[in-house]
Every structure is written in C-alpha cells, then in structure tokens.
Amino acid sequence: MRLPRICLCVVALWFGGLVETVAADSPQPIKVVIVGMLHGHVNGWLRADRQAALELVGVFEPDQAVTRKYQDRYQMDGVPFYTDLDRLLEEQKPEAAW
C-alpha cells in the first residue's frame, strides 16, 4: 500500500512550507486526497484557500453520514467519495494524502 509514503509527502509539504514552492515551480496543482473526515483539522483544510496549489481529487470515508455532512457543509459535489481506500488510491493516483 502506498499510503505511508504519501502521508510522509504531505507532512513534508505541509510542515516544511513547501506547498507554495512546489506549486510555483509546477503549472499543475498537487493532487491530494483526504483519508478520513473525522480528524479535526479537515475542517480547516477545507476552509483554507489552497486552490492554486492543491487539487482535492478524492475523499476516503467509510461512514456515509459523515460523507453527507461534509458534502453539504463544503459543497463538494464534484469531489468523488470512496469507502474503499485502495480503490481511491488506484483511481485518483494522488501525489499526497491528508
């Protein structure tokens, strides 16, 4: 499974302050998936203005009630939600996970 490597990438990008640097050097935003919606910092991530640097390409969340809550709150109609993490990673091929 590629998730641990992807998580390390996010940690390096986020805490290292490299998101803006990478985005400035690349014409394409970094493809990001969210793995689980119940951790508290998801709200902050979804509210922040990162559209230029990051593209949310999918969300893994097995609880459909949680999925509906976030879809309604953040108008995430165009973002695919998955209940199978392996399928999300295979289909969306993210460069980072949150």
Write a concise keyword list for the protein shown above.
single chain, 98 residues, alpha/beta, 4-stranded parallel sheet, 5 helices
Topology diagram in text:
Layout: H1 3-15, H2 19-25, E1 30-35, H3 41-47, E2 54-60, H4 64-74, E3 81-82, H5 85-92, E4 96-97
Parallel strand pairs: 1-2, 1-4, 2-3
Write up this protein.
The protein has 98 residues and is of the alpha/beta class. The chain contains 5 helices and 4 strands; from the N terminus they run H-H-E-H-E-H-E-H-E. It has a 4-stranded parallel β-sheet. Helix 3 links the parallel strand 1 (30-35) and strand 2 (54-60). It is globular and about 40 Å long. The protein starts with a helix and ends with a strand. The mean pLDDT is 79.
The computed structural class is: alpha/beta
Helix % is 40-55%
Number of strands: 4
Strand line-up across the major sheet: 3-2-1-4
| Series of secondary-structure elements, N-terminal to C-terminal | HHEHEHEHE
Radius of gyration: 13 Å
Model regions low in confidence, pLDDT < 50 over at least 5 residues: none
Strand content: 15-25%
How far the N terminus sits from the C terminus, by CA atoms, comes to 16 Å
Estimate the global geometry from the Cα principal axes: globular
Given the structure, what is the number of helices? 5
Residue-averaged pLDDT:
79
Major sheet: 4 strands, parallel
Q: Brief overview, please?
A:
With 98 residues, this protein is α/β, with parallel strands linked by helices.
